[in-house]
Amino acid sequence: MTRRTTFLRDLRLWFVPRAVREEGTTPDYRFSLANERTFLAWLRTALALIGGGFAVDQFLPDLPWGWRVGLALALLACGVLCSLRAVNHWVKVERAMRRGEDLPVSRFPALLAVVVAVVAVAMALVVLLGWEG
Amino acid sequence: MGGLSGTGDPRDGHTVREERDPGLQPERTRLAWRRTTLSCTVAAVLAGRTALTGGPSAAGVLVCALCAALWLAFLVLAHLRMRDLAVARPAAPAPRTVGAAALCTVALALCAAALVF
């Protein structure tokens, strides 16, 4: 099955919640709760990124407008991606557990880490150069 | 919340204690919801600060009210889920709950983008 149709099917599960429960058997409740906590941890990461976006906007007022808004919007976009991906991953893990399959692997954590590192380096450079100039 | 030990006298009627998960999974999940609500509060407070810091304007007050409504929605979601988690073997959350929590976050981010821009 191609990635595209898999994604569309996952998207359908967001809006047709009963479809998740129709498949397979109910897993041990502790596994479901662990999956829920993982989802909440990702949601906190998203909220932290959103808070970071506000912080850049509010607490670096000496930056040029373009840099400030650009950095803030990059962090906010990361937050949106992170929360959407949190739901998608929760649905995928829940379904894999119900079917008894392997849990899905993802390169999202690595991607997010790289993006956050790039934003952090950009922020450090901008603050240093901004203070010099 | 009851006692911490699970070795109560079985005759005192606290049968829930006997079923309590030794790994405290429902409690940990409840605390995770609380932490997430706290994170949401911080984000909403920062939104309010950004919206009202340059003196109140009509748009600023509107976005601030929207953020407060989103925070309230998250609070209600978390409260309902924490109530469901108070039983001995709680079921997985409804996908609607999970989706709504994520949508609150996305909406907060969109408010933030509108405020920053």
UniProtKB/TrEMBL annotation, chain A:
<dbReference type="GO" id="GO:0005886">
    <property type="term" value="C:plasma membrane"/>
</dbReference>
<feature type="transmembrane region" description="Helical">
    <location>
        <begin position="39"/>
        <end position="59"/>
    </location>
</feature>
<keyword id="KW-1003">Cell membrane</keyword>
<feature type="domain" description="DUF202">
    <location>
        <begin position="30"/>
        <end position="96"/>
    </location>
</feature>
<keyword id="KW-0472">Membrane</keyword>
<dbReference type="InterPro" id="IPR003807">
    <property type="entry name" value="DUF202"/>
</dbReference>
<feature type="transmembrane region" description="Helical">
    <location>
        <begin position="108"/>
        <end position="131"/>
    </location>
</feature>
<keyword id="KW-1133">Transmembrane helix</keyword>
<dbReference type="InterPro" id="IPR052053">
    <property type="entry name" value="IM_YidH-like"/>
</dbReference>
<keyword id="KW-0812">Transmembrane</keyword>
<protein>
    <submittedName>
        <fullName>Membrane protein</fullName>
    </submittedName>
</protein>
<dbReference type="Pfam" id="PF02656">
    <property type="entry name" value="DUF202"/>
</dbReference>
<feature type="transmembrane region" description="Helical">
    <location>
        <begin position="65"/>
        <end position="87"/>
    </location>
</feature>
